[in-house]
Amino acid sequence: MDEQSKQFSDGWFIFGDPRFQPLLDGHQSTPQWLPLGQAGSLGYMDHQTTNLHAMLIVDSRLTGSFFLVSRAIWEPSYPPWVKLNVDGASHGNPGPSGAGGVFRDHQATFLLGFSCNTSHNTNTFAEFYGLFRGIAIWFETHPHFQGSIWIESDSTLVVNTIKGLVSANTQVQPFVLHTLKLLDLLREWKITHIFREGNMSADKLASLGLGLPSETIFDRPPTALAHFLNEDANEVPQFRFPKS
Q1: Which chain positions lie within coiled-coil regions (predicted)?
Q2: What are 99-110's pLDDT values in tens digits?
């Protein structure tokens, strides 16, 4: 599909999607997908959109203002890489918390998943613990693995800490050190950020962990995950709306 057809197809999807109606109702609006470079040159870029494929600019001719609707799409890895999406959740922050993650191959095939209860803790604790346990579980179940892993998290703090851009606090520092030691055993690894809307499979597993008495490893996807895995496999766009 050429770029013009792709934009036309996206336009139909946008107008047919009820999630956009609160933004479009009452406005003479023209949705337009802009490549990131072009959006940045027009002054619409901010630090939260650097990892996105595109942005939707809705220009209101009545008010002269515009809305930004970010689009996030989960992408499979490329052979021979394995991809880990990981997340943490806390109700109360601190409060009841859980972590979870899912491993998939370059064809978006489910390889392994896990959920764990992280007791009464902060979201930050759950995020870092989830990453540590994800890598550890992979080596426990694949002791001879010598390939490469692409990690994706919706926590910028986790991503920047593992990259060495910021320092870990004392509570999560042991998880960071153990994670880095395990990553050193891999042929290659990388970690990138994705918005929560594109990380829903891991988000669901982290939420499942809240209600589990102990860590659970899934060699087949739980029923509650099927919808999110299917959307990811088909690269269905997920959208991040402006905060009201």
Answers
A1: none
A2: 999 999 999 999
